[in-house]
Structures are given as C-alpha cells and as structure tokens.
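Attaching the record inline, Q. Sequence:
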Amino acid sequence: MEFEPQANLVTFGAEAYDLQVIDATTGSTVAVFPTGIYGSAISADGRAIAAAGPHSSDFISLWDVESGQEIGRLPRRGSALAFSPDGRAFAGVYFGA
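Structure, as predicted:
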C-alpha cells in the first residue's frame, strides 16, 4: 500500500491481484492496473505509478494513471519504491534472494 498526500491517492494490491488506485477523499477507484505487485510508488503529482512485479517477475513497470497504459518497464526486481519529489526519477530496492 502507498499513500501520496499531495495527489490524494492510495494504491494497494498484492502479488496475485491487480494494482488499484483509489482517491483518498472520495474512496472511488481512479484506475486499475492488470499487474500483481510486490511494491509500488506514486509520483507527487499523481500522474505516474511505479509497480514492482511479484517475486516471479524481474521487472518494475511504470504506469500512466490517467490513460491506464504501461509507459515503461525496467528489467529489475523491486520491493520498496519511491519517486523523487519532482517525479522525474524513482529508486527501488529489493529485499529477497
């Protein structure tokens, strides 16, 4: 689960479930991405989501919240992800074997 207060968005999901983006004020679903997740991050402006796939995958996906489209994929595992304050970069670490 990830909360971005500036964008007022919450993400949640699990390895076997879709990644959901929820508006923290209204509780309504903003977007659903067809990917199981192990970690996620929301850019401060709420326009992008980074999601690390489950243990069986070796990639981190970047998603456009408005269009629902995957806009990039990095060949790396990740457990904990974070965007820079300006949203132009993100970092990730992997906890596992």
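The first strand starts at residue 2 and ends at 4. Strands lie at 2-4, 9-12, 19-23, 29-33, 39-42, 48-52, 60-64, 70-74, 80-83, 90-93.

More tomorrow.
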